[in-house]
Design a protein that fits this description.
The chain is α/β, with parallel strands linked by helices and 350 residues long. It has 2 domains: 200 residues, Alanine racemase (TIM Barrel), CATH 3.20.20.10; 118 residues, Beta Barrel (Lyase, Ornithine Decarboxylase, Chain A, domain 1). The chain contains 11 helices and 20 strands. Strands 1, 12, 15, 16, 17, 18, 19 and 20 form an 8-stranded mixed β-sheet that branches. Strands 3, 4, 5, 6, 7, 8, 9 and 10 form an 8-stranded parallel β-sheet that branches. Strands 2-11 form a two-stranded parallel sheet. α1 crosses α3. The longest helix is centred in the middle third of the chain and has 16 residues. The structure holds pyridoxal-5'-phosphate (PLP). The site of pyridoxal-5'-phosphate has 12 residues, from α9.
Length: 350
């Protein structure tokens, strides 16, 4: 048998800083006071890779994990006990209930419809999401007294804050409504706060918090600036060097024209990798602290950078993609959540 050809090295890599991830979880756990911090790992751990992130979060001490879809369950429970995972979207089909019961993960029940589906399937431990004002997923407070709800075996009673990243009256109003729900519904544990909610203080922490964004380096409120470190480090390789003459234009629609002779580098990073066209003409890449501005448009698989500051760089050399999330959000106009979750499959995650 001939040996299987070995995959050559990548030209795009996403290094997950496992120490920073663990430190962020511990900081959020400490800021949660008497509550314990869990971990939202939906959307492939916000794009960083469940297989890499979940073991680090588990080893740091996280015991409660959240995904959105049923399709996300199996990869997560390869690393943690199924009983530590909740599925936020809840059961929409009878098959979802059968799947949850067979594996031993908890559905988050969001409606009377879902409560009936779960109980009809045989039921078992579940979580209950109540809506306290976001008007997205969750049982309306007016339905709390429905007899079907009284039949549920609720581990975590939860609700979700709509505007915790802002100082607005809605936060206190949601807290008041959640307190009301907690008095009405017996549950083993209660949970209200996402990352930003943790920074609102201990009143919002209850028994369990559910950070996502800030585990991965996102800073939704300034209180978290000193606590949260960058987790995702992106690097892309130069795949061609070229010398431009005065008057040469670069890329689709020739939006950049060289005013003088200059060195440029074609880099293996494009919008198909999640580096969207909003970075065109305002982004830059870095090499050892030297700034290399983008020239022209972002293409599907490539960007071109100005190598004036780093004429020594060669094909195969790695460049850093600045991805400190609050700064990257300010430059790109994307949210910190979008910046993480759009990162494509061509990054080798490590
Ligand atoms: C995504 C999500 C979280 C995590 O929110 P962050 O803002 O990323 O910390 C918590 N709870 C629910 C219900 C979610 O959907």
């Amino acid at each position: 048998m001939p040996d299987r050809p070995v995959l050559p090295p990548p030209t795009l890599r996403l290094k997950l800083d496992h120490d920073a991830l663990a430190m962020n979880w511990r900081a959020l756990n400490r800021l949660s006071g008497n509550a314990r911090a869990g971990a939202a790992v939906k959307a492939d751990a916000y794009g960083l890779g469940v297989a890499k992130a979940v073991p680090s979060l588990r080893d740091a001490g996280a015991r409660d994990f959240f995904v959105a879809h049923w399709s996300e369950v199996s990869e997560v429970i390869a690393h943690i006990p199924a009983s530590q995972l909740s599925v936020l979207h809840g059961p929409v089909h009878a098959e979802d209930c059968a799947y949850a019961r067979a594996l031993g993960v908890r559905p988050v029940i969001n409606s009377i419809f879902q409560a009936r589906l779960w109980l009809d399937s045989g039921g078992g431990p579940c979580d209950l999401m109540v809506d306290t004002g976001i008007n997205r997923l969750g049982l309306p407070l007016a339905c709390l007294s429905d007899p079907l709800i009284a039949r549920l075996d609720i581990d975590v009673l939860l609700s979700h804050l709509a505007s915790a990243d802002e100082d607005v009256a809605q936060n206190a109003e949601q807290l008041r409504r959640f307190d009301q729900a907690c008095r009405a519904i017996p549950a083993r544990r209660r949970s209200l706060s996402n990352s930003a909610g943790i920074a609102l203080g201990k009143d919002y922490a209850f028994d369990l918090t559910r950070p996502g964004l800030s585990l991965y380096g996102g800073i939704p409120r300034s209180e978290l600036l000193a606590e949260i470190g960058q987790v995702a480090r992106l690097e892309a390789a130069i795949i061609q060097r070229r010398d431009l003459s005065a008057g040469d234009s670069v890329g689709y629609n020739a939006t950049f024209t060289a005013a003088r002779a200059m060195h440029a580098g074609v880099v293996s990073l494009g919008y198909a990798d999640g580096f969207l066209r909003c970075w065109s003409d305002r982004g830059l890449l870095r090499s050892n602290g030297r700034e290399l501005p983008l020239l022209g448009r972002v293409s599907m698989d490539m960007v071109v950078v100005d190598l004036t500051e780093a004429p020594d760089l060669a094909e195969g050399d790695w460049l850093e993609v600045p991805y400190h999330l609050p700064d990257a959000a300010a430059v790109s106009g994307l949210s910190q959540y979008e910046l993480l979750t759009i990162l494509g499959q061509r990054f080798r995650r490590g």
